[in-house]
Design goal:
The complex is a heterotrimer of chains A (about 325), B (about 300) and C (about 550). Chain A has about 325 residues and is an all-alpha fold. Chain A has 14 helices and no strands. In chain A, helix 6 runs antiparallel to helix 7 and helix 10 packs across helix 11. The two termini of chain B are about 35 Å apart. Chain B contains 14 helices and no strands. In chain B, about 60% of the residues are buried. With about 300 residues, chain B is an all-alpha fold. Helix content of chain C is about 30%, strand content about 15%. Chain C is built from 17 helices and 20 strands. In chain C, a hairpin with a 2-residue loop joins strand 6 and strand 7. In chain C, helix 8 runs antiparallel to helix 11, helix 9 packs antiparallel against helix 12 and helix 15 packs antiparallel against helix 16. Classes of the chains: A mainly alpha (about 325), B mainly alpha (about 300), C alpha+beta (about 550).
C-alpha cells in the first residue's frame, strides 16, 4: 500500500509538471492564431474585424500568471477551454469525438503486437538458434527500422492504391451510420487493417526481442532446471514456469507503450487520414489552436499516467518482492 | 521509437535478472577491452559497422560524388531511373540520388549529435542520481520519470511547430525528448555499480567525486552507455525524419525526412514515382538496422547467455 | 522434439487467427468500399484543411463548416470573377447612388426559408446588424433599413462605391431564427434554416457530413444533385489521394502533376481548369528598410526574377508571369493594354538589372556580392510559410535568380503564423505574399499603395505589409470610391496602373491560379474555359452557381 501511495504521489507531481509545461509551451513561442487564420484564408482584414475576432476567442492581454491560475482552475473543473479552430466547440467535445478512434487503433495494434511479439519471443528463446530465433529477430528489427510513416505509405500504396484491397482513408465508409451491425463492424475493421498493420510491424520486433532476452535469462534460473529435472513437459515449463516470470518486464513496458501508442499513432493517423486525436493534434498545432493542442496533450499525458499507475497496481499483485520492499 | 525504448529496457532488466556472479564477469570483459574485441569478431556487429561506415563515407563524399546544389530544379521532371539519373528525378526535376546522398549528411549529423548529447545528459543525470542518492536521486529520478512519461512524439510536434525551424531546433527538441530514457537505464546500472566494493574503497580513500563518477563508475558501464548511445542515435534519425515528414522541420533543407516530405507533397504515390519514395526510406531503415545490429552485438558480447548457441 | 510440438502449433494457430481476421475483414471491406463510388446523386468533395468536422453552420463564425456560405445560406448577388459580372441572386436588382454614398437592393419575392417562411427585407436588415456586431467591418455603413418588404436601403457615411460588392456578398440569415438566439457569436446552428439549395444536415460524423435538398428552395429546377457530402482531411496529400482514387467528384486544392496523377487515369471524364484569376502573388520588399525604399532597387530586383521559371518550376506551369500593372486575369477588362505592352521591370533582364544597381550605388565586391550603402553585404531573407510548399519553391527560384545580380537571398520558411506576424509588424526583410482579390481593382491598389493603409513598423498592419504609400495613388483611390460611374472608374484604374508601373510598390510574380478539378463520371455541367459561368473553387461565392448547375449522369 505504501508503495502504491508513493507512486500515486509521483503521478500527481508528474501531472502537475505536465500541466505547467503544457501551459507554458505554446505561450513562450511567437505566433498568434488570428494572424494565422489570415494566412490560411489568404484574405486581409481590417483592425476592427481583428479586434472582434480576438474578443470572440478571448485572446485578451491578461498577465501570464493570471492565465496560468485560470488554466489550472479550469483543468480541475474539467474545463479545457474552447477550441479556436472549432470555435465555439469546447475542447473536451472535440477530443471526445476523436479519442475513441485512437484508442481503437492503439489498443488493437498494441494487443496484437504484444501477444504476437511475446509469443514469438518465447518460442525463439525456447528454441535457441532455430529458424524462428535466427530469421525472425533480424527480419523484424529490419522492418521495425523503417520509419512508421514510410511503412504506412508503402502499405497505403501497395494495398490501397495498387491492389485496392483496403480503403485509403478514414475510420469507416463515409456516410455510413454507426451501429452494432455486422456490416458496420466489418467496415470499421477493414479501415483499421492498414493503420494497425503498420504499427504492429514497427513495434513487434521490440516485443519479441525483449521477451526473448528475458526468457533466456529466466531459463537459466534454478527453478527451471528443477522443473526439467522433475520431468515436466516442455510446453508446461515454457509457459507456466519460464514465460510467466519473464512476463514481468513486459508488463512494465506495456504501461509505457500505451502512452507511446496513443501519441505515436500520430504519424500513422496522418498518412491514413484516420480521424483520431493524433491527426487532430497535428491539425491543431498547424492552426495554432492553443487550447485544443493543450487539451490533446493533457489527454494523452493523463492516459499515460493512468496506464502506468494501473501497471504499478498489477505489478504489485504479480511481484511479491515489490510489496516487501 | 518504441523499439529502441523497449530494447533499452530489456537491457537493464536482463541485467537485473543476472546473478551477481555473472555480473562480475561482464565487468571483467568490458574493462579489459573485451567489448571492442568482441564486437570485431561478432558477425552482427561487423555487418552493422560496415553499413554504418559506408553511409558515413557516402555522406562525407557527397560533394565529390554529386557536385552542385542537390535541390536545384531542372526541366527533366519525374524521370524514371536511367543512366543519366540512377535513381530518377523528382516532380521538380531534382536528382534523387543527389538528394539521398546529400540528405545523409543532415540525417547522420543530426542523429549522432542528438545521440551524443542525449547520452551525455543521460550519463550525467543517471550517474549523479546513483552516486549521490537520497534527495538528489529523488529529484533527478522524478525529473527523469516525468520526461519519460511525457509522450515523445506529441511533445516533439508541439515543440518543433513553435520553435523556428532549423537543424539546431531539431537537435534541441530531440534531445529534450530523448535524454530521459537513457538516464533511467544508466541510473539503474550505475546504482548496481555504486554498491560495489571498489566504489566504496574509492570513497574511503578520499578520491574526488567527479573522478569516482566518471573514472570509476562510468568505465564499468561502457556497454550500457554504448547501447544507450546507439538507441539514442536510432531515435534521433527516426524522429528527425518523422518531424520533417510532418512538415515541422526545415522544409528547405535537404535530409531524408524532407525528401520524403516533398515526395509525399508532390504526390509521388499517385503518380507512381516509386523511385522518389524508396531511397530515403530505405536509407533510414538501413542505418537504423545497422545500429540496431551493433546494439544487439553489444548485448551479446557483454551478456554471454544471449549469444546464439545451441541449447540442450 | 515431440515435446515442443504443441507450443509451435499453438503459435501458428494464433498467427493464422490474426491473419485470418485481417483477410476476413478485407473481403467484407472490399464490398463496402465500392458503395461510395456508385452514382447515388451525392456530390462528394474533400476538404483538406481540417482533420475532423465539428458541427457549426453559423455563417458569422470564422470557423463555420465548408458549404455554410455556399449551400446553406445565399448572398444578395454573386460576382463571377471570370467575367467580372454580378449575377443577381437573392437581390433581384440594385442601384448605387451616383455619389457613391448608398445602395438600394430590391429583393426577389419568391424566396422562402427552408422552414417555409418567406424571406423579407427585415431578414436582410437584421443580418447586417448581426454581422456588424459579431464580425465587425462595414465601417462605411451608417444605416440599413427596410423601405418595404422587398426593398432594402443601405446608407454610407462616406463615398464608398466598392461597398456594393461587399454588401452583396454577405449571406442572409433568417430573423425569425436568429432573433431567438441569445449569443449569436457562439451559436453553432446545428440544424440551419437557410435559403440555399442544400440545407438539411444528415449523417453528421467527425470525418464527413452530408447536406440534403432544401424542400422549399426557390429554384427547385436547379436542385439536380441529391446532396453534398464533405470529407475531412488534414493536408493536401490525403485529400488528393481520395480524389485521384476516384472516391470524390470535385476537388479544389492544389494537385501536383495533375495530368499524370489524375487526368491520365480516365481522360474521358477527368478534367481540370486553372484560370489565373486568384489574387496576385508577389514578392514584397519592406520599403521601410534600405535599400528597398529605393524604387530603382525594387525594379532591378524585379528584372532579375525569371518569372517563367517561377511559373514552371514553382507553380508547375499552371500560371503565367505577372505584368507591371500587378493585376490578375480576373481584371482583364480593366487592364490598360498600352501599359501592359510597355512593361519593362517585370521582364527578365539581368544585364539591365546589374546596370541599375551599379548606377544606384550598390557596387559588387570581390566575392561577387554587392554591398549596401551602409557597407554591409546586400544579403536578405525571403520569408514564406512552411505550409505553402509551392511558394517555398518559388522563393528558392528567386533566391537562385538573385545570385546573378550579386544579391544574397536566403529562404526562411518558419510557420505561417511567424511569417504573418513579421509581415504585420513590418519586421520582415522580404517575403512572398498574397494580395487582395475583389470585384474591382480598388482593393488591390488600396493594399499596394494607399497612404491610408500604411501603418508604422511595430503597429500591426492588415494590408500593405510592405508599407508603401503614394500620394497620387491615394487621391485616385478616393476618387474611385466616390463614383459609381463605370467609365470614370475605368479611367481612374488606368491611372492607378500607371502609378503602379512607375512606383513598383512590390514585385508582382504571377496571378494565382484558382485550382479546380472534377470528374464527369457522376456529374456534368461543370464550369469550363468555354463556359466560364463560375470558377472551380468549392469555397467561394461562385460555388453556389456550380451547385445549382450540376446534373447527375443518368
Amino acid at each position: 500500500m505504501r508503495f502504491l501511495l508513493r507512486r500515486l504521489g509521483f503521478y500527481l507531481i508528474a501531472f502537475w509538471a505536465c500541466i505547467t509545461l503544457n501551459f507554458f509551451l505554446p505561450r513562450l513561442m511567437p505566433g498568434d492564431p488570428v494572424s494565422r487564420m489570415f494566412a490560411q484564408v489568404q484574405t486581409q482584414m481590417r483592425p476592427d474585424q481583428i479586434a472582434a475576432l480576438r474578443q470572440l476567442f478571448g485572446l485578451t492581454d491578461k498577465p501570464v500568471w493570471q492565465q496560468y491560475l485560470d488554466y489550472i482552475g479550469n483543468i480541475f473543473r474539467g474545463n479545457m477551454g474552447i477550441s479556436l479552430s472549432r470555435f465555439p466547440t469546447p475542447v473536451s467535445s472535440v477530443i471526445s469525438s476523436e479519442i475513441g478512434w485512437t484508442l481503437l487503433l492503439g489498443a488493437t495494434s498494441l494487443v496484437i503486437a504484444v501477444v504476437l511479439g511475446n509469443l514469438l519471443g518465447i518460442m525463439a528463446a525456447w528454441r535457441r538458434g532455430r529458424f524462428l530465433d535466427s530469421v525472425f529477430p533480424p527480419l523484424l528489427v529490419f522492418v521495425g527500422s523503417f520509419p512508421y510513416f514510410w511503412l504506412a505509405m508503402a502499405a497505403l500504396y501497395l494495398f490501397g492504391i495498387v491492389l485496392g484491397w483496403f480503403p485509403l482513408n478514414h475510420a469507416f465508409t463515409d456516410g455510413v451510420e454507426a451501429s452494432w451491425s455486422f456490416s458496420y463492424v466489418a467496415d470499421v475493421a477493414n479501415h483499421l487493417v492498414l493503420p494497425a498493420l503498420t504499427i504492429v510491424l514497427v513495434s513487434i520486433g521490440g516485443w519479441m526481442l525483449g521477451m526473448r532476452n528475458t526468457m533466456i535469462a529466466t531459463t537459466a534460473e534454478d527453478y527451471i532446471t528443477m522443473a526439467r529435472a522433475k520431468g515436466l513437459r516442455s510446453g508446461r515449463i515454457m509457459f507456466h514456469y519460464a514465460a510467466r516470470n519473464a512476463m514481468l518486464p513486459s508488463i512494465t513496458s506495456f504501461g509505457m507503450s500505451l502512452g507511446f501508442v496513443v501519441g505515436g499513432a500520430l504519424l500513422t493517423e496522418t498518412v491514413f487520414a484516420y480521424p483520431g486525436i493524433g491527426y487532430q493534434l497535428l491539425n491543431s498545432v498547424q492552426a495554432l489552436d492553443y487550447p485544443l493542442t493543450q487539451g490533446i496533450f493533457l489527454t494523452i499525458t493523463t492516459a499515460v499516467l493512468a496506464a502506468n499507475f494501473l501497471v504499478d497496481i498489477i505489478y504489485v499483485r504479480l511481484d511479491p518482492r515489490v510489496r516487501v520492499s | 521509437m518504441s523499439i529502441s525504448q523497449s530494447q533499452r529496457q530489456t537491457v537493464t532488466q536482463g541485467d537485473d535478472a543476472t546473478p551477481p556472479s555473472a555480473k562480475r564477469s561482464i565487468l571483467a570483459r568490458v574493462t579489459g577491452g573485451g567489448l571492442v574485441h568482441g564486437l570485431l569478431t561478432n558477425k552482427k556487429a561487423l555487418f552493422g559497422l560496415t553499413i554504418l561506415f559506408l553511409f558515413v563515407l557516402l555522406a562525407v563524399l557527397a560533394p565529390l560524388l554529386s557536385p552542385g546544389n542537390p535541390s536545384n530544379f531542372t526541366a527533366d521532371v519525374s524521370a524514371a531511373p536511367s543512366s543519366d539519373h540512377w535513381l530518377g528525378t523528382t516532380a521538380k526535376g531534382q536528382d534523387v540520388l543527389a538528394l539521398t546522398l546529400w540528405g545523409s549528411r543532415s540525417s547522420l549529423s543530426v542523429g549522432f549529435t542528438v545521440g551524443l548529447i542525449a547520452t551525455f545528459i543521460g550519463c550525467l543525470v543517471g550517474i549523479a542520481s546513483a552516486y549521490f542518492g537520497k534527495v538528489t536521486d529523488e529529484l533527478l529520478s522524478l525529473l527523469t520519470n516525468i520526461f519519460l512519461l511525457i509522450p515523445g512524439l506529441p511533445l516533439l510536434v508541439v515543440l518543433a511547430a513553435f520553435l523556428p525551424p532549423g537543424p539546431a531546433t531539431v537537435v534541441i527538441v530531440l534531445v529534450i525528448t530523448g535524454w530521459a530514457g537513457s538516464a533511467r537505464v544508466l541510473r539503474s546500472q550505475a546504482l548496481s555499480i555504486r554498491g560495489k566494493d571498489f566504489v566504496a574503497a574509492a570513497i574511503v580513500t578520499g578520491e574526488k567525486t567527479w573522478r569516482i563518477m566518471f573514472l570509476e563508475i562510468m568505465p564499468n558501464m561502457a556497454s550500457i552507455v554504448m547501447s544507450t548511445l546507439l538507441g539514442c542515435v536510432i531515435y534521433g534519425i527516426g524522429a528527425q525524419a518523422g518531424l520533417e515528414f510532418l512538415g515541422l522541420g526545415d522544409t528547405s533543407s535537404v535530409s531524408w525526412g524532407t525528401n520524403l516530405y516533398w515526395a509525399n507533397n508532390d504526390g509521388a504515390m499517385m503518380t507512381g514515382d516509386w523511385w522518389v519514395l524508396i531511397p530515403s526510406g530505405l536509407a533510414i531503415a538501413l542505418i537504423a538496422f545497422a545500429l540496431a545490429m551493433i546494439n544487439y552485438a553489444v548485448d551479446e558480447v557483454t551478456n554471454p547467455r544471449l549469444r546464439a548457441e545451441k541449447k540442450d | 522434439m515431440p515435446k515442443n510440438k504443441r507450443s509451435t502449433s499453438l503459435a501458428i494457430l494464433a498467427a493464422s487467427a490474426v491473419l485470418g481476421a485481417m483477410a476476413l475483414t478485407g473481403c467484407a471491406g472490399g464490398h463496402t468500399a465500392n458503395v461510395g463510388k456508385t452514382s447515388d446523386g451525392i456530390l462528394r468533395i474533400p476538404r483538406e484543411d481540417t482533420a475532423t468536422f465539428t458541427s457549426n453552420f453559423n455563417p458569422f463564425s470564422p470557423t463555420a463548416l465548408p458549404m455554410t456560405d455556399q449551400a446553406v445560406f445565399e448572398p444578395l448577388l454573386i460576382v463571377n470573377p471570370m467575367t467580372g459580372k454580378a449575377v443577381p441572386w437573392l437581390g433581384k436588382s440594385w442601384t448605387v447612388d451616383s455619389n457613391g454614398k448608398g445602395v438600394t437592393f430590391t429583393l426577389r419575392s419568391d424566396v422562402k426559408w427552408s422552414d417555409g417562411q418567406p424571406m423579407t427585407a427585415a431578414d436582410v436588415v437584421s443580418t447586417f446588424t448581426l454581422a456588424k456586431k459579431i464580425q465587425g467591418g462595414y465601417s462605411y455603413l451608417s444605416k440599413v433599413s427596410a423601405v418595404n418588404p422587398s426593398t432594402v436601403r443601405f446608407d454610407f457615411n462616406k463615398a464608398y462605391s466598392p461597398g456594393l460588392y461587399e454588401i452583396g456578398a454577405q449571406v442572409i440569415v433568417p430573423e425569425h431564427v436568429w432573433s431567438k438566439v441569445s449569443d449569436p457569436a457562439k451559436f453553432t446552428n446545428a440544424n440551419p434554416v437557410g435559403t440555399g439549395p442544400y440545407t438539411k444536415v444528415s449523417h453528421f460524423q467527425t470525418q464527413s457530413y452530408e447536406l440534403d435538398k432544401n424542400p422549399n428552395y426557390w429554384q427547385p429546377q436547379k436542385q439536380q444533385i441529391n446532396g453534398i457530402e464533405m470529407l475531412a482531411f488534414a493536408g493536401n496529400s490525403g485529400a488528393n489521394l481520395a480524389f485521384e482514387n476516384g472516391d470524390v467528384d470535385w476537388s479544389d486544392q492544389f494537385i501536383p502533376s495533375i495530368q499524370k496523377s489524375y487526368v491520365s487515369k480516365d481522360p474521358a471524364h477527368r478534367k481540370f481548369w486553372y484560370p489565373a484569376t486568384g489574387g496576385t502573388i508577389q514578392w514584397q520588399l519592406n520599403t521601410t528598410k534600405a535599400p528597398f525604399n529605393d524604387v530603382n532597387v525594387r525594379k532591378a530586383l524585379s528584372m532579375a526574377v525569371d518569372r517563367n521559371q517561377v511559373a514552371t518550376l514553382g507553380e508547375s506551369g499552371y500560371t503565367h508571369p505577372a505584368d507591371c500593372t500587378g493585376l490578375t486575369d480576373g481584371y482583364a477588362s480593366w487592364k490598360d493594354a498600352s501599359i501592359v505592352n510597355s512593361c519593362d521591370w517585370t521582364k527578365l533582364n539581368v544585364a539591365e538589372a546589374n546596370k541599375m544597381l551599379d548606377a544606384a550605388g550598390y557596387p559588387r565586391g570581390a566575392n561577387g556580392i554587392r554591398s549596401l550603402k551602409s557597407g554591409k553585404p546586400f544579403a536578405f531573407s525571403i520569408s514564406v510559410g512552411s505550409a505553402s510548399s509551392d511558394w517555398i519553391s518559388v522563393a528558392q527560384v528567386i533566391a537562385k535568380n538573385m545570385q546573378a545580380i550579386g544579391v544574397q537571398l536566403t529562404v526562411s520558411s518558419p510557420d505561417w503564423s511567424q511569417v504573418v506576424d513579421s509581415y504585420s509588424k513590418g519586421t520582415f526583410d522580404t517575403g512572398i505574399v498574397w494580395t487582395n482579390a475583389a470585384t474591382t481593382p480598388y482593393e488591390f491598389y488600396r493594399g499596394e499603395m494607399s497612404q491610408d493603409s500604411v501603418v508604422p513598423v511595430g503597429t500591426p498592419a492588415n494590408e500593405d505589409y510592405h508599407r508603401f504609400g503614394d500620394a497620387q495613388a491615394t487621391a485616385l483611390l478616393n476618387q474611385m470610391a466616390a463614383t459609381s460611374d463605370p467609365a470614370t472608374q475605368k479611367t481612374i484604374v488606368n491611372e492607378l496602373q500607371a502609378r503602379f508601373k512607375a512606383t513598383a510598390p512590390a514585385i508582382p510574380l504571377f496571378p494565382s491560379p484558382v485550382w479546380g478539378a472534377y470528374s464527369e463520371q457522376n456529374f456534368t455541367g461543370w464550369p469550363t474555359a468555354a463556359d466560364p459561368y463560375a470558377t472551380l473553387s468549392a469555397r467561394s461565392s461562385t460555388t453556389t452557381l456550380v451547385l445549382t448547375s450540376l446534373k447527375p449522369v443518368k
